[in-house]
């Protein structure tokens, strides 16, 4: 699609210029900017011009257009280089990085956000929740870091005042699994002082303008930034309120707790209030003007007000003898300590926020064996080269950082590439370029560089001033071609004596003011402030100041200076970038007015020159877009040639690679080195990728077919073996079961219990039914053996007990099974009853007494009387024992349809009749055996009689067992009121009232 851009938009790739001159380069760059084409390629490098306006080229449709496409297929875009870095990482499992460089205000921060947006959009197609969570945190972290690390400067409304390098970790599927953020040199001096027209960090204004009224009141703040010394210089912005809401939302998404968010903004509020603390001196001592601000600071930092005042006014010092003394500050020292404390508070807060984000997104417990290779894409968004009217220590460090990044660009793009062509024996015309190593050495060289001179001055005992340090630099660097000062160039009136020095950077000459260099390099903060914060009751503040736990008498190693720390971190950053495959975004600022239509030719040409873009075009134009060792090239593309698939038979890998190139007709677009193949244009490589992508599914299907066949054959063999083993094992289990049963029951005939106590072995599943039948047969045999030894005279009792056992089903615990059942208890104790019984036998002609005994009868009025009951095979008699067993009532046995008893130990039972005139009675236990149970005996006798003697007439006789209960209901009336009859089956249920009466 790159070719689809008409000629009216200029050349989409500077490599396609007719002549590589500065005039043609600038003419093409200006034409594309005026036509709204802000991106242009130099091979794989993207040149970006800040449009200073919103452009509709970043939506979902644009992301889909660049997803998985090659660079030259679409117009130049940030998405193209992002996709190229992602594909290189995923295809070759190689770490990559995207380095975004340019001046302050050139659009680096926005470029990094669009790159992150693209990477987030093209990953996690399966929408896994954990990957989405990582992506959300990575994206939301930009919002938070901008709020606390960016500020408005005269050159940029959203200038990064810190350096950020983010590593994004990907799993073998290409989905982000975590990341890590490194921050570099936060410009903390901005907290206490800004240049005219600039603002403090965004976070302060967002809190003041976006915080709710209740929040500001709780922080003792007002919503006017002009009321605070640290923010009165900056103007508020229209989007401070909306930005504050976005930051609060982002903090919650990342995982900050509500308490942590409150602590963050309490620290911001305490910094603002700290700036309003004023001091006055009466000549002898210094006092704080008004203690209201101190009390508020104490409340917000969860410290003691007296400790805060004391820390601001005094310094605790340990003498050589171990004695601790307090030294009062002068008014100037108190102001210096206050500002140093404010800067340190904000710096620690920012570092804690970055660390907190890292704790959420860092990959934990990663095991390459289980999870595959973890690859990385790094995104570097760091402050750009700066030249202000007054350039201080911060600008010196920032410009040194840009020198190191430019050196990396020269190393990787210019010097290494040309050196590789020479090593590989590729014909090459050398291209001259400016190597800024001499400037890097001027700053960082040991013992001779500016940083070393600053550190030496900081370590020198005595009153060493910034002027003395400048004199030392003038002495040691007088002969350096890129260093000068007013002392070394007396005629240069743009510099002042004992104040300015100038470095000739790759991006232009910068004059630095040496004032404050030593103080900022020492970065000293009184230990009293550290101890004060470490003793805070706020856990967030306490965590930020671990060094505050040291007492004043503990000797600690002198900390490294700010410049040395920054140098070490930048050297580590460059080493980290150098081991990755780099992709570059070179940002250009079109004008100083932030105008979307103005293109300042001189300004842009200066940037093109110091960024080395023209030399980059020359190297790319004369060089090759892609190079790869023969073995790796062959491994990737051998399936596209019939002579190399699956394995070649040629003398060397180079000959095999030549066969691939010849088959595809790329002979004129490649060069052969000693160990690598060089491809000039990306189109040739894309053609190979397309053919490879078309062949991969065919090869995959072939491999799947072969492997599935092998799996099926193995599975079939395994199943056959399994079934053979299963058959043998089943037969063995059946035989083993028979053998075990035979062994256990071999001598049951001679056992006392005929094998009842023998435990049956657990049968296999196939013999479960057979096992049940066998157990049943054994039980029947056992019963036959037992029964045949019982005398005929005892059989009647045995049958009754068996009938009772069957009827009660084990629900009644004690039913008299362990004793002999006498049945006719009245005949055994009373001669009068014997006489009455004979008379009744002669009269009613019954043949057998089933049961007789004393009982207690309850009538409908809840009155009970002692009675006798006689149950024969024809009638049931109610007798009066006190009147010589006179028959009070006679009921035919056939009239009874059911019997109900309880599950307890009581002797209550209910006899049911077809006329609904049920009989409730409670049997009396024996006099000699008060615990004797006779209910079971009566149940057994009746059930045995009805089931054995006349089963055809009483097939509907029902026995009901009611559970015993301890609850009592206040019933009234006689038995007819406590017995409820069910229609259809003549069964009864006895209420708790009846149980209470009869028990």
How would you characterize this protein structure?
Among the domains are: 627-707, Alpha-Beta Plaits (2-Layer Sandwich); 748-788; 793-948, PH-domain like, CATH 2.30.29. The longest helix is centred in the C-terminal third of the chain and has 63 residues, at 682-744. By secondary structure, the protein is an alpha+beta fold. The strands form eight sheets. The protein has an eight-stranded mixed β-sheet with strand order 23-22-21-20-26-25-24-27. The chain has a seven-stranded mixed β-sheet with strand order 1-2-16-3-12-6-7, sandwiched between helices. It has a three-stranded antiparallel β-sheet with strand order 13-14-15, covered by helices on one side. It contains 32 helices and 29 strands. This is Myosin IG.
SSE order and pairing:
Blueprint: H1 22-34, E1 39-42, E2 45-49, H2 60-66, H3 78-92, E3 96-102, H4 108-122, H5 129-149, E4 150-151, E5 159-160, E6 163-170, E7 176-184, H6 202-210, H7 213-218, H8 240-254, H9 258-275, E8 279-281, E9 286-288, H10 292-301, H11 305-313, E10 314-318, E11 324-328, H12 331-361, H13 368-371, E12 375-381, H14 393-424, H15 437-444, H16 450-459, H17 466-476, E13 483-485, E14 500-505, E15 508-513, H18 517-522, H19 527-534, H20 539-544, H21 562-578, E16 581-588, H22 601-610, H23 613-622, E17 626-629, H24 630-637, H25 653-664, E18 670-672, E19 676-679, H26 682-744, H27 768-787, H28 795-808, H29 831-844, E20 849-858, E21 864-872, E22 875-880, E23 886-892, E24 896-902, E25 908-913, E26 919-923, H30 935-948, E27 958-962, H31 975-978, E28 979-981, E29 988-990, H32 992-998
Helix pairs in contact: 3-4, 4-5, 5-6, 5-8, 5-12, 6-8, 9-10, 9-12, 14-15, 14-21, 16-17, 24-25, 28-30
